[in-house]
Specification:
Largest sheet: 5 strands, mixed
Distance between the termini: 49 Å
CATH class of the largest domain: Alpha Beta
CATH topology of the largest domain: Rossmann fold
Structural class: alpha/beta
Strand content: 5-15%
Number of strands: 13
Number of domains: 2
Shape: globular
CATH architecture of the largest domain: 3-Layer(aba) Sandwich
Strand order of the largest sheet: 2-1-4-5-6
Length: about 300
């Protein structure tokens, strides 16, 4: 049995759970940065590695080396009796999940049964945000309730990934309204992804708007702002790394200032929130991507009032 875990926090408790099988820890963050529109996996990883190094400073050689370790075990999927995927409800995990399923299908081999463990809450953990918050003894009952993916689930995952890497988000928007018993969190996660498009009125995406809106109430320590985000916008599943990217971009645009650990909204930030200025007039979107959408020249916007993507 091969277990694909969603991160190192899950690995820490999984190792003491008594559940048999080999483990691979999935460390990609495919919801962040460019997801090249190619079916050639070698090209996909090379292009993504170059993008991550250029934009985020992630060493491309180290990235490719780490990726190969993860994929070697997936490439040997046929030797296992079962593959168990452990992923969460948020955008971060759900994008990784559909890519893993897409990748496995692309191996063109006879796959063993593939099952999934995923949850969005747990009775023993108030304010549940992820599997890593559980204790080892919680995992066996979850494992016993795992569900096995059927052909329609594979088709849904494949369609979602292929739509995710396109510049035109309309196919993805349509899929975001699809309901699935065995992939119950995917639709809502895809909707959260689409809300990362600039708002048709302010130019802010949902994450940027949240951060500015909280700072409009007063200065906050960066960490306190992050905790508010984690508590209220759990759907994204972002860690420190991604939130640091956002706060740094907001500072460069002049809508937020920093003094030591304190973040504050500027006058310009207040004007953007009040629809008096457009964030895109001050924020560079060069080299910014969400999936297959280049934000520096996309005509697509999110219309919050109508709850849908529109062409500007």
């Amino acid at each position: 049995m091969l277990h694909v875990l969603n991160g190192d926090a899950t690995r820490e408790i999984f190792d003491h759970s008594g559940i048999p099988g080999e483990v691979v820890v999935w460390r990609e963050m495919l919801c962040e940065g460019k997801a090249p529109a190619t079916h050639d996996m070698s090209s996909f990883f090379r292009e993504r590695a170059d993008h991550l190094q250029q934009v985020y400073g992630i060493d491309s050689t180290a990235y490719l080396s780490g990726i190969m370790k993860e994929y070697e075990q997936l490439n040997n999927a046929a030797v296992y009796e079962e593959i168990v995927l452990w992923f969460e409800f948020d955008l971060f995990c759900q994008v990784n999940l559909i890519f893993v399923l897409y990748y496995l299908q692309g191996l063109r081999i006879k796959l063993p049964p593939v099952s999934i463990v995923q949850l969005d809450k747990h009775p023993d953990v108030p304010n549940f945000r992820g599997i890593g918050m559980l204790k080892s003894q919680h995992l066996q009952p979850l494992f016993e309730k795992r569900v096995y993916l059927q052909e329609e689930d594979w088709q849904f995952a494949r369609a979602a990934w292929e739509a995710y890497i396109q510049e035109d988000p309309l196919a993805l928007e349509e899929l975001s309204h699809h309901t699935s018993h065995r992939l119950p969190y995917l639709g809502k996660a895809l909707q959260a992804h689409l809300q990362r498009l600039p708002d048709v009125s302010t130019g802010l995406n949902a994450v940027e708007h949240f951060l500015l809106d909280r700072l409009a109430l007063g200065k906050l320590r960066e960490r306190d702002l992050y905790y508010q985000f984690w508590n209220e916008l759990k759907i994204y599943g972002f860690g420190d790394f991604q939130l640091d990217i956002y706060t740094q971009r907001l500072q460069r645009a002049g809508v937020v200032t920093r003094e030591d650990e304190m973040l504050a909204l500027t006058g310009l930030g207040a004007e953007v929130l009040n629809h008096e200025e457009n964030y895109l007039s001050f924020a560079s979107r060069q080299d910014e991507w969400i999936g297959g959408i280049p934000l520096d020249h996309t005509p697509w916007r999110w219309n919050e009032a109508e709850g849908k993507v529109v062409h500007s």
